[in-house]
Amino acid sequence: MQIDTYTGGAFETNSYFIPTQEGGVLIDAAEGVCDWLQSRGQRVSTLLITHGHFDHVPDAALVKKTFNCQVGYHRDGIAMLTERHFFRRLGIPYDTEPIAADFYVDETPSVSLGGLDFAVQHVPGHCPGSLCFLLKGERLLFCGDVLFAGGIGRWDLPGGDRHLLIDGITGKLLTLGDDVRVLPGHGPGSTIGRERASNPFLTRP
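Above: the chain sequence. Below: its structure as tokens.
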């Protein structure tokens, strides 16, 4: 299966595009991804948002307007994603273009999203409403800012909780199988097996 990666914005945020017969599934909407998709002649049927942080959604409203796609995210992300000045009120100098959900995504062992079969894990701790999407047939985990190659998401922003994050990773992600490929919101990919064995945040006593 073809998986295209776009990296954009000041924080070098990864977005992932999966072409499908229905048009394609986009996971997160980093700055510039809409122009990138249009330049490649792609169209989007579904936008899935892993979490509502400003660096993952700057193009979300533009993608919605351009492609008239369906948008899905977790209910706990509503405030971040629909209140333009949410982060600025917390002292973080970023605003976001509000993006309403067409549907909400909950934790589930199986759901069809954009014509693809996903298992969804809700793993808060980096921020409320963080979702990880496992593309079941391909054993690919799109995990936003929950798990990185050699790291985990930061927990010092509003709504963060280190213990909640690590418990979610160990209890929900490390049980998926060592062969699962990890496609994070920043940086290079990895595997569950590699992170289980060597991620310093997960191997400390």
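Residues 139 and 180 are 5 Å apart (CA to CA).
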